[in-house]
Amino acid sequence: MNGREINWTALVIVVLLFVVVAVMGFLAAKWRRGTDVEGLHSLDEWGLGGRGFGTWITWFLLGGDLYTAYTFVAVPAAMWATGAVSGFFAVPYTIVLYPIIFIIMSRLWSVSHRHGYVTSADFVGGRYGSRWLSLAVAVTGIVATMPYIALQLVGIKAVLTVLGLGSSGNVLLTDLPLILAFVVLAAYTYTSGLRAPAMIAVVKDLLIYLAVIVAVIYLPIKFGGWDTIFGSAQSKLATVNQATGKPAGVFIPGAANYSAYWSLALGSAMALFMYPHSVTAVLASKARNTIRRNAAILPLYSLMLGFLALLGFVAIQAGTKPIDLDGSVNPQLVVPQLFLDHFPAWFAGIALAAIAIGALVPAAIMSIAAANMFTRNIYRDFIRPDVDARTEAKVSKIVSLVVKVGALVFVIAMDQSAAINMQLLGGIWILQTFPAVVAGLYTRWFDRWALLVGWAVGIIFGTVSAYNVVNPVTKAHFGGSVAPIPGTDISVYIAVSAFALNLVVAAVLTLVLRALKVRTGEDLTRPTDYAADETDPKVVQIEKIQHYTQPGGPSPVA
Amino acid sequence: MSHADGSGHSQNGEAFPEDSRLTRDTAIRGPARPAPYIGAGILLAAAILFPLLPQLYAFDAPRLGGMPFFYWYQLLWVPVSAILTGSSYLLVTKEDRRRRAEARAGGPPQAGSASARTGLGGDRP
Predict the structure, then answer these.
(1) Please, are residues A455 and A136 in contact by the beta-carbon 8 Å criterion?
(2) What is the DSSP letter of A381?
């Protein structure tokens, strides 16, 4: 059934690096902790690493967070299989991402610093005085994150498969290495919180850079230069597919593909920082400017991603055969297989370890972020409003375990394509929280109920549109993330058309509700909050001062 | 960018010690000059707009080291975008520093520092 032999040298290197990283994960609990802080007994400590990461740690943390193992596996896989539109759009996506972060994320940092917000839903709740809108943001965040974590497991699985593991007929034994990796991950996330992925991200990123730089210099030389590589990519992608009668892929997008190309890039860039795990890494940084400085230095990762994407074309020229355990072609094995085929086993081991560890960092951050959202915006807002900081941390730790087990069951029990479909939907859904979060950073013009209805309309439209995209070969639903705008033949990323609809509904309803004089919620934020820096006092500090000096004044925060 | 800062008036007058003049609405920055924000806005808008116009770069020629224009042009935009964002950073931070200095000179004293790890978690009344 399976012709793969275990590659022992590579496997030993992978296991060794994995153990090193696990030890670091546990030691991280004591890393950068103030002497006055005892244990990780608050969300600020456990869930945000003490809110004190400087520019470089944040760089590694965000790099490890945004450029996930799935990215490393899926982007070259898409290039290998279908070319530029579904693969190389990741480059403009990660280019336009940073100016967008530069503009919006410093304001989110400032208001969160002032008010002690831990999640974007916290901010929405405080800004609009609506725990229902906050709940919508939180639920969307959690639901969109779950399949994302599951996809990290798919990344690890790809590595384990090419290493020759998981070939046993016994189901439990097949998935044993995966389960083992995840139990260790869950354990150090539980004990160390966000500090663990922050520390591991440094190692992981250095390994990834090493692997990609060596591969990008060595492989083109070995395969006759970029000229030959692009030549064979061009002819492969132009080959007509028997089932559809269309070319297999796109080498350089034609005019018909322009709208899909730019809307995929823009929509993904806008969506990425709505994900809870991105916000978590932003709020863990020390100062307002940390994130802006990072917007200028994070593009180094995009350059790496661009070259990694081109490795998909290199694999075409190299004749890489990504054959899965059941004998079918699985494009996601392309990059791990490429490394294993053309490098000494020990170096392939380093590269494969980098990918596998690259799955652990975002998986840890995602589970922490989803847990924080549950604790703050569901447990506190709806179940126990008087919860203290210590209990919040405890609840978050437990929920982070639940989230990870859920993702594991997802991958083991369900078909891999289910995780990919869910992730596709997750990207569409998460963008529907953009109006509430980002518009809220600038204006209170929108009505909270209008935003809630706009969100619901966007999600329903997006889900239905995605369901109606049918794969021309397999006839399966959720066949892609691009569909024509209804009534036209302009194909765009469904998340973007749903977002536009969402915005229009929210704006029109706001005008209607205003005309009807519907009560607006209380806004707990002030204009000064949005520019606050680390040296500016937090709201609790200001109100404490007022409490002492001003009898009969505004009552202090409980 | 953020032009909207607090008005800077303090509600509770002189009868209290200095610190009490610090309120939620105490301005932390002086008024903005538009030029740096417009400049940064243009740079950032360029960094967002140009990579999203495949009309400008979806060609094969000219190739660079065997790489079609479509591919190397977009890879080139990565450092270009980093430079544009970095320049915006310098523009905006310089103005921010000036506005903060102005608020310090004219406004109430600075209070509290980030190193004071107090009162975590109690963010809602």
Answers:
(1) yes
(2) I
CA distance A67 to A205: 10
pLDDT in tens, A87-120: 888 899 999 999 999 999 999 999 999 999 999 9
- d(CA A439, CA A433) in angstroms, rounded, equals 10
Report how far residue B53's alpha carbon sits from residue A259's, in angstroms, rounded to the nearest whole number.
Answer: 9
Residue with tokens 């995929």, as numbered in its chain: A264
Closest residue, chain B, to A553 (C-alpha): B12
| pLDDT higher than 60, residue A166 | yes
**Per-residue pLDDT reduced to its tens digit, A8-44:** 888 899 999 999 999 998 988 888 776 666 677 888 8
Structure tokens, B26: 């105490």
Q: What percent of chain A has pLDDT over 90?
A: 46
Mutation target for A interface from B19, B24, B37, B53: give the one with most A CBs within 10 A. Answer: B24
Which residue, chain included where needed, has tokens 């450029």?
A67
Residue type, A286: K
DSSP conformation class of B56: G
- Does the CB of A257 have a partner CB in chain B at under 8 Å? yes
Structure ipTM over 0.85, yes or no: yes
Structure tokens at A119: 């999640």
* CA-to-CA separations, B81 to A12, A85, A94, A101, in angstroms, rounded: 41, 21, 10, 13
Q: Which two tokens stand for residue B15?
A: 């009868």
Per-residue pLDDT of chain B (125 residues; tens, 9 = 90+): 444 443 333 343 333 344 446 777 778 888 888 999 999 999 999 999 999 999 999 888 888 888 899 999 999 999 999 999 999 999 999 998 899 888 888 754 444 433 333 333 333 33
State the smallest CA–CA distance between residue B28 and chain A in angstroms.
7
Test B122 with A261 for CB contact under 8 angstroms.
no
Length of chain A: 558
Kindly list the structural domains of chain A, giving each domain's residue range(s) and its CATH number in brackets, ordered by start: 43-241+273-416 (1.20.1730.10)
A70 Rama class: left (phi>0) / alpha (psi -120 to 50) / beta: alpha
- Burial per residue of A405-420, b for 16 or more beta-carbon CB atoms within 10 angstroms, e otherwise: eebbebbbeeebeebb
Beta-bridge partner residues of A491 = A484
Q: Residue A328, SS3?
A: coil
Concatenated DSSP letters of A217-240? HHHHHHTTHHHHHHHHHHHHHHSB
Contact residues on chain B for A389, CB-CB shorter than 8 A: 120-122
Contact A299 B81 (CB under 8 A): yes
- Return the amino acid letter for A283: L
Tokens 């997750």 appear where? A426
pTM of the entire predicted model: 0.87
Domain ranges in chain B?
Answer: 33-106
Rounded-to-integer distance, Cα A495 and Cα A458, Å: 8
The answer to whether the CB of A61 falls within 8 A of the CB of A199 is: no
